[in-house]
Amino acid sequence: MKRVLLAVAGGLLIGAFAASHARLPAAPAKSEAEMKAAADKAAAAKAKEAELLGKAQDKAVVNYKKNKGVSMDSPKRKK
Fold this sequence. Notes:
The chain is mainly alpha-helical. The protein has helices at 2-20, 32-68.
């Protein structure tokens, strides 16, 4: 019984080792339309990210001014 279990365990280990070193087939080449669609999607994502970054920066500036009491106007001197 022990020999059978050892043989099965050994077979599983050998199978796992072989499966982990197997080569996958190469991915099919993308067509020009697919590449253009991927580029458009990346450009749209970059534009949206830039817009969100601008909004976050504006919100941070407003929050800073509100909490610190900093004015962007030049200080007026008394005469």
